[in-house]
Amino acid sequence: MFQFRIPYPVNPEYRQALFTKAHSLVSGHGTLEGTPERGIFQGRTIVGKFAGSYRALNDSAELEIEVSEKPWLVTHHMVEHEVRKLFAPASGRTV
After folding, report:
1. Rg of the chain, C-alpha, whole Å
2. Which of 9, 33, 51, 71 would be a feasible disulfide site paired with 95, CB 3.0-4.6 Å?
3. Are strands 2-7 and 62-69 parallel, antiparallel or unpaired?
4. In this model, does residue 92 exceed pLDDT 60?
């Protein structure tokens, strides 16, 4: 298990847009249950299963992601890098 934090917009509309984007990406491989503020995810890829949770930190422009399961071939760095790419457009916005 490992955790990391990424920039996350405070604006509810931007959060909802990112949540919708993440939901559509995960739905092809598994499930994402929750709200833009907190939830859980799980799924399977050709290299193995993944699972975890996320939560927006109160009054902070950060999202904390906890990965509880990942394919052993995939490093922690690779997981974090891919998540950061997904959220990168949001970091350039005024929140």
Report:
1. 13
2. 9
3. antiparallel
4. no
